[in-house]
Amino acid sequence: MRVALVNTNRIKPPIAPIGLDYVAEVLNAAGHHVEVLDLCWEDEWGSAIANFFDGTHFDLIGVTLRNTDDCTFTSRQSFLDEFADMVGAIRKHTDAVVVLGGVGFSVIPERVLEVCEADAGLWGDGDFDFLQLANKIERREEWHNFSNLIWRDHGRWRRNPQSMLSLANLPPMSRTWVDNRRYFHEGGQAGIETKRGCNGVCVYCADPIAKGKKIRIRPPKTVVDELERLLEQGIDHIHTCDSEFNLPQVHALEICREIIHRNLGDKLRWYAYCSPVPFSLEFAKLMRRAGCVGINFGVDNGDEEMLRRLRRGFMPNDISNAVKFCKEAGIVVMFDLLLGSPGETQESITATIELMKRSRPERVGVTLGVRVYPGTELANLITQHGLKEGLVREGDLSELLFFLEPAIAPFASELLDELIGDDERFFFFDPSRPERNYNYNANQRLVDAIGQGYRGAYWDILRRYK
């Protein structure tokens, strides 16, 4: 059966659509004919859609939405209107079944479907479920009756039960379905999954909603096989796409040992998201031997009470120890802060910034204002405890919702400026401060740096770029 997969993400610097790459591999392994339309590289996406679909018959079309917005309180840029226009343009040129997917879609699927001319959507994993859908359509079977599908039933969107299959069933990944070499040249890095899902209980996080609440690991051998395929393409700077690379730690250890066993540690430079717990000096040293050069710890806060409120499983001492272990192992560190959630105070912000300065990571990213996703504990807290005073919407876009604790809203920005001063280690998720902005959407300094040959995690490129 002929299947088209469309990447709609046009953010610059460009980020390769790893999920689409995986879906294409699964479909191809099952014998389906797959063609990819990558709109990232098109100057005029409307013309590209028309040229791709006119005169070519497809039975099934998958359209991926990586991000609904830039997740930034200061800019609040939504990508949903353009995405809906793209889906509408596709619909004009084909009568195939059009199905939406991707992490961005899976966070607010019904909202996305409401504004798009699509037949259905897949929330969660796209690869196995999209294959099941393709098989059913090819056999002319009823295709509304399998897991993870969202479809219109008598005028309403209906969610079928969710299920997540073992990642051991994925075929070998060639990483050839999109132009990963060009993405590396213009985007500075490539992504890889070692696992999916997150069993954390952070109050604001949508990862368990989009990727599942159970961690599902990939066999270490297949992960490192994929790393070798990327190296063969000249791609040697990698970033893990896991929620937390070191959860579970035993799996992360196995990945590192397999990389070392194949003598790839000196050929790769890779970055990871990690949790400060569990984390040890021995683990940091093993990661460094395997080629890890940088870790982003999403610590969110440095105040004990706020860490409890956010349902984080670590304390300030764990944050400081993570930096100490990484420095001794030769790994650079980025901390991400998420300030302004319910209960935030002047004292908690002060304690957080002071902890950052004492811990001395190479960089600290500061985000003020918390993105509120439906289905998270934060969304429920706001509804149940009358916290709507802190909500901020962008126009009437219900999918673009932020919270900023009302008690600190009048002075939080000024307080942060006073506490941070001219300390260059601090980034801001704020396009209005281009010299210290780490909003990666349309970041010209980042584009310029990559054009001059810088490679790696975006925060580390900005750290090194002068």
Describe this structure in words.
The protein has 18 helices and 19 strands. It is α/β, with parallel strands linked by helices. The chain has two domains: 158 residues, 3-Layer(aba) Sandwich (Rossmann fold), CATH 3.40.50; 286 residues, pyruvate-formate lyase- activating enzyme, CATH 3.80.30. The strands form four sheets. A seven-stranded mixed beta sheet has the order 2-1-3-4-5-6-7, with helices on both faces. Strand 6 and strand 7 form a beta hairpin. The longest helix has 14 residues. The termini are far apart. About 1% of the residues have low confidence.
Number-wise, the strands total 19
Number of domains: 2
Shape: globular
Could you name the CATH class of the largest domain? Alpha Beta
Number of H- or I-type helical stretches:
18
Determine Rg (CA atoms, Å): 22 Å
Do you know the CATH topology of the largest domain?
pyruvate-formate lyase- activating enzyme
N-to-C CA distance: 51 Å
CATH architecture of the largest domain: Alpha-Beta Horseshoe
